[in-house]
């Protein structure tokens, strides 16, 4: 590198990176159902739901809505939630149906799926890691972003 060249200032975090970090967060700090974060603890790293863990991975603090994030972080956060939703549609579909048999929601909500009584921490971690792997498969080529 020549002395006149600018050094790289940062690495681009992908939705797959956030999904993997969210899975790691849940392994280290615990999984939660019902709300984004467990409110029974006085820790800056409370147990979290799937989307809450994505928020913690993105910001390093509890995120209750994407507007809580810096503007630059929002696209990656929303991309990670969308990648998880797409993965759930393929592997863990939950479609709410009304009394007439019509779908109320065409996509599996990561919020409802996380809170399903049959869902476990292992399911959530596996889905986050699977969604990351699927995002990489669709968006990278030879380790580089497409």
In short:
The protein has 146 residues and is mostly helical. The chain has helices at residues 15-29, 50-59, 74-91, 110-115, 121-139, and strands at residues 140-141, 144-145.
Features of this protein?
mainly alpha; 146 residues; disordered N terminus; globular; 2 strands; two-stranded antiparallel sheet
Describe this structure in words.
InterPro entries: DUF6197 (IPR045677). It holds the Pfam family DUF6197. By secondary structure, the chain is an all-alpha fold. The protein has one domain. About 45% of the residues lie in helices and about 5% in strands. It has helices at about 15-30, 50-60, 75-90, 110-115, 120-140; strands at about 140, 145. A hairpin with a 2-residue loop joins strand 1 (about 140) and strand 2. The longest helix is centred in the last third of the chain and has 19 residues, at about 120-140. The protein is globular and about 45 Å long. The two termini are about 25 Å apart. Mean pLDDT is about 85; it is low at about 1-5.
How much strand content do the residues show? Answer: under 5%
Rg computed from alpha carbons, rounded to a whole number of angstroms: 17 Å
Spans of at least 5 consecutive residues whose pLDDT stays below 50 are 1-5
Helix proportion range: 40-55%
